[in-house]
Amino acid sequence: MSADADRAAPENRGWRRWFFALVVTVALIGMVLHAAQIEDFGRLLTRARPLWLALAVLLQLSTYASVALGWSLVLRQAGSPLPLPRLIRIAVTKLFADQAVPSAGIGGNVLLVDQLAAAGVPRGTAVAALLVSMIGFYAAYALLAIAMLMMLWLHHKATPLMAGLVTSFILVALAIPALALWLRHRGRRPLPPRLDRVKLIRELLETVALAPRDLISDRGLLLRVGACNAVVFLADGGTLWSALHSLGQPAGYGTAFIALIMASIVVTLGPIPLGLGTFEATSTASLSLLGVPVATAFAATMLLRLLTLWLPLVPGMIMARSILRARAKPLR
């Protein structure tokens, strides 16, 4: 597409600006409504063993590096590399958008493409980075969900409800990248008149059609990016495992991994912003099912949420606000 298409007209950016404003607003409301819970984190930190807590922080930092590395692999292969630190900053902002408004990652995905394009990456390459990372993410997520269910079965803890949740999630995990690939394969063929009048759908199809086909179909690249995304889930499981040990609970890594994946699935399938309440309840229940005392399970889950949600939420919100200010300038 021409350079004029990359420099979208101000009116075409309007819905994006309002969407990011919604994301910031929802996150602020969530923080205000859960201010007491955030204060409880301070008391948890005084109980945590410093070395285990430091390990949990390092594991969380590795998740942002892993996500950014996946994007970097695509950009380098396309001949449009960006410095890893810059991609890590985008990863923090994307996490904020994904957590604030759970919508299969749509908010974070829009932000990713726009930020890569703003950094000088051709929009088609930016879309390819999004699609490849999305396929890698859901492929890794689905495989780890199956592994989690098998581990529960080996522990004789699998229930029909858990099997149903995992099955529902796998259907979603297959549907989202399949839809993205179908949209890319469809290209710029004309839409039915009713759909063509919806600007959001028209812009989405036009954007997805920009992705170079050779990047999307590169199996080696997809495997490498999928491995980067798998590291994120494994590191999150390690963070919960470290949180348990920091509170004096010598649980195995498998216990933490099962709780992390099960809670993540419930949040993915649910519509609640930030996954507030659902993640905590599912993680605590899963840990308790596997023999962790309820009080310790809840405290470790709260510590995990501090490191994975609340602490990154602050820099993510600041970065998102700077994006909003930048978007507002051309509209004046």
Topology (SSEs and partners):
Blueprint: H1 3-6, H2 10-33, H3 35-47, H4 50-77, H5 84-100, H6 106-118, H7 123-154, H8 160-186, H9 193-196, H10 199-208, H11 213-216, H12 219-246, H13 253-269, H14 278-289, H15 294-328
- Estimated structural class: mainly alpha
Q: Summarize the amount of helix as a percent range.
A: over 70%
Measured distance between first and last alpha carbons: 27 Å
Order of SSEs: HHHHHHHHHHHHHHH
Strand residue percentage: under 5%
Helices, by number, come to 15
Instruction: Tell me the overall shape.
Output: globular
Radius of gyration: 20 Å
Walk me through this protein's architecture.
With 332 residues, this protein is mainly alpha-helical. It has one domain. The chain is built from 15 helices and no strands. α6 runs antiparallel to α7 and α7 packs across α13. It is globular. The N terminus is likely disordered.
What's a quick, concise take on this entry?
This protein has 332 residues and is mainly α. It has one domain (8-331).
Tag the structure with descriptive keywords:
single chain; 81% helix; disordered N terminus; 15 helices; 332 residues; mainly alpha; globular
